[in-house]
């Protein structure tokens, strides 16, 4: 029983960490796509 709980907790942790990296990468991709659209339109980028 303890092995199943440990395995489940480990699997949950691995899936959670991989999801964070995926969402972070998608955010960077969207930001760069937005910058490319802004550059193509000739408008200034918003200040951070």
UniProtKB/TrEMBL annotation:
<keyword id="KW-0472">Membrane</keyword>
<dbReference type="GO" id="GO:0016020">
    <property type="term" value="C:membrane"/>
</dbReference>
<feature type="signal peptide">
    <location>
        <begin position="1"/>
        <end position="19"/>
    </location>
</feature>
<keyword id="KW-0449">Lipoprotein</keyword>
<keyword id="KW-0564">Palmitate</keyword>
<keyword id="KW-1003">Cell membrane</keyword>
<dbReference type="Pfam" id="PF08085">
    <property type="entry name" value="Entericidin"/>
</dbReference>
<protein>
    <submittedName>
        <fullName>Entericidin A/B family lipoprotein</fullName>
    </submittedName>
</protein>
<dbReference type="GO" id="GO:0009636">
    <property type="term" value="P:response to toxic substance"/>
</dbReference>
<comment type="similarity">
    <text>Belongs to the EcnA/EcnB lipoprotein family.</text>
</comment>
<dbReference type="InterPro" id="IPR012556">
    <property type="entry name" value="Entericidin"/>
</dbReference>
<keyword id="KW-0732">Signal</keyword>
């Amino acid at each position: 029983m303890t092995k199943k709980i440990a395995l489940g907790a480990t699997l949950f942790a691995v899936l959670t960490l991989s999801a964070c990296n995926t969402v972070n990468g998608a955010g960077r991709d969207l930001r760069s796509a937005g910058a490319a659209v802004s550059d193509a339109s000739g408008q200034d980028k918003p200040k951070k």
